[in-house]
Write a structure and sequence with these properties.
The complex is a heterodimer. By secondary structure, chain A is of the alpha/beta class. Chain A has one domain: Rossmann fold (3-Layer(aba) Sandwich), CATH 3.40.50.300. Chain A is built from seven helices and ten strands. In chain A, the strands form two sheets. Chain A has a six-stranded mixed sheet with strand order 6-7-8-3-9-10, with helices on both faces. In chain A, strands 2-1-4-5 form a four-stranded antiparallel sheet, with helices on one face. Chain B is α+β, with helices and mostly antiparallel strands. In chain B, a hairpin with a 2-residue loop joins strand 2 and strand 3. In chain B, helix 1 packs across helix 12 and helix 2 runs antiparallel to helix 10. The chains are: A alpha/beta, B alpha+beta. At the A-B interface, helix 2 and helix 3 of A face helix 1, helix 11 and helix 15 of B.
Chain lengths: ~230, ~425
């Protein structure tokens, strides 16, 4: 089943008086459980695609479907609801809330979602943090953790509400290569275990190597879209 | 909601220095405001009490026409039957005491020096029931009926270097324009230092019989000063006195202390309005402090706000985090303000402050209020007002920064480098 679909999507940014076309007619569909990398040089439109899939932005032309529902014309408040329920984000700069502990950061999306049973929330949170290897760091604040640990918390936070889609914008760009690989390995394992769909943007060869499907962009168009068979 | 509050609470302590500065501005500004209000209230009540106790009593019965010209201290409007009026009012339970008095213009002469003053002829045996001059004698003793002695205000005594037992001459004017006067050589029985500097600076008290003789007024007086049990009932008592006096052939008017001291009240109102500007400025500074702190917080946390929006946090929830933050700083600041205001107000109420440290002459010059010691009047209402006012102001001050926060575009916010 297609979990997300882009149909002839165009996106034009207006910078001052200049129109800057970021996407020029992108169409592809994503199946449930995919581990997909969108690659390309900077300015090729990777982040724009993630923003559109993440309901943070609207296309200038074309249609976007999530779970077979057209979300193109949804008002901003509805888009926030879609994000809260269906989408997990992992950012390049981790973006944890500095005043909350690892536990609280991961618990946060559950609270936003309206899960009121505190004990259940905490159990789920602890489980996922254990799964990402942070059992002993539950009560640490972000500034008491390494970059890799923070990104693990971010992955746990993205996954805790069991979203349909996890979007990761250059998730390893701020990490050294060893830690970056560990994070990718972790995401891949979680993808296989939970069948959660992962889409991440990158221009890093090592990251592309992890993907099971690789879409290459150039100048706002798809250059290639191929399945990758892995060892 | 609990989570939003937790977030806000921790964010308050995230930028400690800035929070402390804003907190200090609020507590200082509002604390001063609370002290200011206590002082205004105190000055209002105490100054009025001082005027009542040394000048106006609660009510004055005057011959018709006197009140309009009271500043001239005229002798032509007299009460001809003071004893009759007193006995008419004898059974009024509200009245504590009625004293016959004559006010007249005079000068006091000691050697080569001569100073103008207000002469007040009193009934020494009745005066303590109506006024508090007797309690304010600092040197010597109070007057006895019919004796050839006077009481001097402490300022006058100082200016003329007179002390108890000294002789001086009192020049009593029938008419200043026509320069008709009578002179009495009198011994000083006592020095009065009331809580009203205006009285201390320029008043001489002499026994009533002496003044009546010197002014050829026989049994007549210029006013009957009335003290009542309960100040709040002044209007009712005035009405009842007026209805009793209606039976008399001569026209009289009954004037309350508020009317008698209306100039002073007007002055007070003006003064407190002008002085209220200072704490208002402080509050404005505190408010700007909160706006500034919260705007800085929005700027510094732009990416965090973007991330919260990306996670699906509603605009209202983002706004609430910032409003809670402002409110928390405001509540903490207001509590501290209540402590500062409470301590300051308590000190003002218990001890008060005197301008005497400026030296007696200067303090008399700068002080135009009828008070020797400035005392506050602290009420729970003032503190509750401070607390609520501070909190409300803080919430209002965080509305704009909170609005700025939700107006941010999540994509731009996430890209923000800060």
């Amino acid at each position: 089943m297609s979990i997300a679909k882009l149909e002839n999507v165009h996106k034009v940014y207006h910078i001052g008086k200049v129109d800057f076309p970021a996407l020029r007619g992108i169409s592809f569909s994503i199946e449930e459980g995919e581990f997909l990398s969108i690659a390309g040089p900077s300015g090729s439109g990777k982040t724009t695609i993630l923003n559109l899939l993440g309901c943070l932005d609207k296309p200038s032309k074309g249609k976007i479907f999530l779970d077979e529902k057209d979300i193109t014309a949804l008002p901003t408040a509805k888009l926030a609801d879609v994000r809260r329920k269906n989408i997990g984000f992992v950012f390049q700069t981790f973006n944890l809330i500095p005043v909350l502990t690892a536990m609280e950061n991961v618990e946060f999306p559950l609270i936003l979602e309206g899960q009121h049973e505190a004990k259940e929330r905490q159990r789920v949170t602890e489980d996922i943090l254990t799964e990402v290897g942070l059992k002993d760091f539950l009560h640490r604040r972000p500034n008491e953790m390494s970059g890799g640990q923070q990104q693990r918390v971010a992955v746990a936070r993205a996954l805790v509400k069991k979203p349909k889609l996890v979007l990761a914008d250059e998730p390893t760009a701020n990490l050294d290569s060893v830690t970056g690989e560990e994070i990718l390995q972790l995401m891949l394992e979680l993808n296989q275990k939970t069948s959660t769909t992962f889409i991440f943007s990158t221009h890093d060869k090592m990251v592309m190597d992890f993907a099971r499907r690789l879409i290459k962009l150039r100048d706002g168009k798809i250059e290639s879209d191929q399945k990758v068979n892995k060892k | 909601m609990k989570m939003l509050f937790k977030l806000a609470f921790r964010n308050v302590f995230r930028y400690k220095r800035r929070t402390i500065i804003t907190f200090s501005a609020i507590s200082y500004g509002l604390g001063l405001m609370a002290i200011g209000i206590s002082l205004y209230n105190g000055v209002d009540t105490h100054a009025m009490d001082n005027i009542i106790n040394s000048q106006t009593a609660h009510l004055k019965i005057l011959a018709r026409g006197y009140f309009e010209e009271k500043d001239e201290v005229p002798l032509k409007f007299t009460i001809d039957e003071p004893q009759e009026i007193k006995s008419l009012l004898k059974d009024n339970q509200d009245i504590q005491g009625i004293e016959s008095r004559i006010l007249f213009q005079a000068t006091i002469i000691s050697g080569m020096d001569e100073l103008p003053c207000l002469g007040v002829a009193i009934e020494p045996e009745v005066d303590p029931l109506v006024f508090k001059i007797k309690d304010s004698i600092t040197d010597g003793r109070f007057l006895k009926p019919s004796e050839q002695k006077i009481i001097l205000g402490s300022g006058l005594a100082r200016d003329l270097s007179l002390k108890v037992g000294d002789e001086c001459t009192l020049r009593i004017f029938f008419s200043i324009e026509d320069f008709i006067w009578n002179a009495l050589d009198l011994e000083i029985a006592g020095i009065a230092k009331t809580e009203n500097p205006m009285v201390n600076r320029g008043t001489v008290f002499i026994p009533l019989s002496l003044a009546q003789e010197a002014l050829s007024l026989e049994n007549r007086v210029t006013e009957l000063a009335v003290r009542i049990e309960d100040k709040k009932r002044v209007l009712e008592v005035r009405e009842s006195i007026e209805s009793r006096l209606a039976s008399l052939s001569k026209g009289y008017e009954v004037v309350s202390f508020e009317e008698y001291a209306s100039d002073f009240r007007e002055l007070m109102r003006l003064r407190s309005r002008i002085q209220a500007i200072i704490p208002l400025m402080m509050i404005l500074i505190a408010t700007l402090g909160i706006v500034n702190t919260m705007l800085m917080a929005v700027m510094e946390r732009t990416r965090e706000i973007g991330m919260l929006a990306a996670m699906g946090m509603r605009k209202m929830e983002v706004m609430l985090v910032f409003i809670f933050e402002g409110a928390l700083i405001g509540i903490f600041g207001s509590i501290a303000a209540c402590i500062i205001g409470g301590l300051g107000g308590w000190w003002l109420e218990a001890k008060g402050f005197s301008l005497a440290f400026l030296g007696e002459e200067i303090s008399e010059m700068v002080s135009f209020l009828p008070m020797e010691v400035y005392k506050g009047d602290l009420t729970a209402g003032v503190l509750i007002f401070t607390l609520i006012f501070g909190t409300v102001i803080s919430i209002l001050a965080s509305l704009y920064p909170a609005y700025k926060a939700v107006k941010l575009d999540p994509i731009q916010a996430l890209r923000h480098v800060g």
